[in-house]
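Researcher: Going back to the complex we discussed earlier. I've cleaned up the inputs and rechecked each line, so this should be the final set. Can you rerun the prediction on the complete assembly and write out the structure?
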Amino acid sequence: MNKTGSSFTLHGIPVSRGIAIGRAHLFAPAALDVQHYLVPEEQVENEVQRLQDALATVHRELQTIWTDLPADAPAELGAFIDVHALILSDPMISEIPLEIIRKRHYNAEWALVTQIDELSAQFEEIEDAYLRERKNDIGQVGERVLKVLTGTASKLPEAGADESMAHMIVVAHDVSPADMLQFRHGAFAGFITDLGGQNSHTAIVARSLDIPAVVGLANGSTLVLQDDWIIIDGDAGVVIVDPSPLVLKQYRDLQQRLIRERKKLSRLRKTPAVTKDGTPIDLMANIELPEDCATAMEVGASGVGLFRSEFLFLGRIHAGRLPTEDEQFESYRKAVLAMKGRPVTIRTLDIGADKPLHHADETALNPALGLRAIRYCLAEPQMFLTQLRAILRASAFGPIHLLVPMLAHAFEIEQTLAMVAQAKAQLREAKCKFDEQIPVGAMIEIPAAALALPLFVKRLDFLSVGTNDLIQYTLAIDRVDHEVAHLYNPLHPAVLQLIGMTISTGAKAGKPVAVCGEMAGDVRLTRLLLGMGLREFSMHPTQILAVKQEVLNTDLGRITAQTRKILKAYEPEAIAEAVAQLREM
Ligand code: PEP
Ligand code: MG
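Model: Rerun complete. Updated structure for the full complex:
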């Protein structure tokens, strides 16, 4: 039973749909801040054993990580694990804390932290910068042991390890997009966090994993205990902790109904996405890693409209270096081959804001307004050129479109194009094959870009509207901040006008326009976007069939006038009502 002793309900922000029912699995970065108490004499040897067991568990964890390292994993990653294993076996960690328990009767956590603090202070004094750095490794090893001791794991069990884990709900104060990468390989049914907004990257990854999730629960996670029963209603943004048998039954029935509806949709996999009046619509997939192409193909995506390449980089931070040109090339090639001739739109590194490359970058005052995405790439030309060469080389294996995030200024577009030309020249010189005609496009996600489209259509081959950032920057709302999440409104007239303008200006200039932000995967908005003239949607593969159903039921002739009316409206109620009416037409 949870900390309150009875069933209770939490309300948060729904970020990924569906019903999940399972046991709580507390996920927390263990702060080196632990309970301190004295152990009675007769318990001392038990306490010593508890610490020894935790040390042995961490030893096994490290060995498993070692043996599971992919063959192409960078050498530094192995070395990094070696250092941790060495620290763990050193008497400084494996023996002295045990002596502290025996002599001072401290509990295991306290004994361990006492010794780690002592070692950290000694390392602080060391002149050699490399050795001084090892202080962090000691801290990390200590955290691993503490997590085992306190029962808050930082790593999830692997899929298939135990059937019951498929019904595990991750409960966390916060989950970073990098942590979510780790979750991709775990078997769990849903997650809830205290922090986060509707379109934070963590939420986006949850949607791509297709598991129910609710974020922005304030301090809800502190009320939940390991193994508490939890229901997540990802549609309503509601979390029920320790539900009564009656409530549990109602939700199980609802869950079954949703599963049956999903199954029905899967019949549309091979049906062409064409409106009732015969207009073909492109329904493409957003992916984070090349492996996601399999799901994209399964649901019949007509291509990849957004490959968020930064996730290749985020997964490698711990290896201490960025992926090399060859490693990147292999990932891009894998994606393009998996899509079997369907276009793959690779977005260049969109790092920064809620996807920091280094933890040090998190200190920027306004990271979303800072050196992110193309700004970062233009400031790091060698890194950018490496990525461009890798993408270009992969274009010899299938159709690739190159998409550039966060452009706002003419000179940024020009510098980017000059870098693409430079990367091409380098490859020609090295006699590497690539697609000379590779289309280059811009994300329209800064209001300034949407208001200055002639700069873009003149210089680039296509546009893709990033509604997640466009909403963030138009309404001045941090998309990650749950305190302003209620202000994040895709139907704000300013947002709708910017999207409408981008679609119509692109059409007039003969340049394809896609929407690849979360609005493209929201069935409630499909008709509105179709009515605005949108013909290319890119979304999580899990949304494609539902959006396709909406496309199949839409008669463009019937919705155009209503859409025009919406684009001219300002009053929120009038807009909301007109959008709802669109769905009835
Ligand atoms: C967007 O901003 O809408 C977008 C698709 O990019 P991201 O969500 O990765 O910032
Ligand atoms: Mg964006």
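Model: Worth noting: Residues 44-67 form the longest helix (24 residues).
Researcher: Good, that matches what I expected from the previous run.
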